[in-house]
Inverse folding.
């Protein structure tokens, strides 16, 4: 069986290090789960989450040069979670302790329509705002210089 990125497989933990865990997969191939891919929470000590000989589900993240296989337990768990149903009312009636459904919203960045589209427009807008800010600063500083406490030299000293 050929491994492909994105596949979810079962494997057995064969070794644990401070930076990750080695997992034997099908066909005698071995991959590594980095410490950041062990659990969805912060992992300080891998031994708190995994034991040698334990069977785990892993997702293939990358197959690198020399056949190095990067794996993730965290992402395999995320894909195996049950999806919320889209009908919120029926869920709450049948099971009052069930969670409401999560909306399927895409949060992709889209530029504002008023934003400049090419480099020259962006530069002219930057220059304009910079000049406005500088003029505001100069005006503020000029106002400060004219008012306030001034020190006067008193040459009439009583010696």
């Amino acid at each position: 069986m050929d491994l492909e990125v994105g596949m979810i497989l079962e494997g057995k933990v064969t070794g644990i290090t401070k930076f990750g865990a080695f997992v034997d997969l099908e066909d005698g191939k071995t991959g590594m789960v980095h410490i950041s891919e062990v659990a969805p929470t912060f992992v300080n000590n891998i031994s708190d989450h995994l034991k040698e000989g334990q069977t785990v589900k892993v997702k293939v993240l990358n197959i690198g040069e020399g056949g190095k296989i990067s794996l993730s337990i965290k992402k395999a768990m995320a894909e195996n979670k049950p999806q919320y149903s889209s009908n919120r009312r029926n869920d709450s009636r049948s099971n009052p302790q069930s969670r409401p459904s999560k909306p399927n919203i895409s949060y992709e960045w889209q530029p504002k329509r008023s934003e400049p589209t090419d480099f020259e427009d962006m530069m002219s807008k930057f220059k304009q705002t910079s000049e406005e800010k500088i003029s505001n600063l100069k005006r503020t500083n000029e106002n400060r210089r004219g008012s306030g406490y001034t020190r006067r030299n008193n040459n009439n000293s009583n010696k």
The two ends are 104 Å apart (CA to CA). Strands lie at 8-16, 20-24, 30-34, 55-63, 69-72. Confidence is low (pLDDT under 50) at residues 85-93. The chain is about 25% helix and 20% strand.
